[in-house]
């Protein structure tokens, strides 16, 4: 069997896809023990999300904080596309994501009777990865929402202001 798909080695594709799946599972299981991010990211990680741009430890904290705004989450990745020359130390990847978020009881109470308990997002992630001595790690990652249903979480005032400034959209605070 040919080990190549286009120019990407199947082993690299498998390792990067597994890395992405592991990152999503870590978020959903909230396994944020000390040093958790080292299994997925480089120390100089840079993220771009609807909440803005963050780097290094701030980017990791943003992942933890965003997940903590919900009672539960389920992130599903699909259609992972990897571009890497065989033996290269860098790769680019993109993947689709279906992200379901269950609101905290406090959010539902603040919104009143009949509030939708779910906020669902269909989006596209893009990442740049580096091959390290420990395997592939993401060093740049962005997510763009393609569609949403339900209402986003209630955000702290400072965060809501930042979302409004970045996107022009009104955020719940």
* DSSP helical segment count: 4
Assembly type of the chains comes to single chain
Distance between the termini: 55 Å
Average pLDDT metric: 89
Main sheet characteristics: 6 strands, mixed
Tell me what you see in this structure.
This protein is of the alpha+beta class and 173 residues long. It has helices at 10-29, 56-68, 105-111, 157-167, and strands at residues 4-5, 8-9, 41-49, 52-55, 70-83, 90-103, 118-132, 135-149. Strands 4-3-8-7-6-5 form a 6-stranded mixed β-sheet. The protein has a two-stranded antiparallel ribbon with strand order 1-2. It is elongated and about 55 Å long. The chain starts with a strand and ends in a 6-residue tail after the last helix.
Topology summary:
Blueprint lengths: L3 E2 L2 E2 H20 L11 E9 L2 E4 H13 L1 E14 L6 E14 L1 H7 L6 E15 L2 E15 L7 H11 L6
Parallel strand pairs: 3-8
Antiparallel strand pairs: 1-2, 3-4, 5-6, 6-7, 7-8
Summarize the structure.
The chain is an alpha+beta fold and 173 residues long. 29% of the residues lie in helices and 43% in strands.
Features:
single chain; 173 residues; alpha+beta; 6-stranded mixed beta sheet; two-stranded antiparallel ribbon; 4 helices; 43% strand; elongated; disordered N terminus
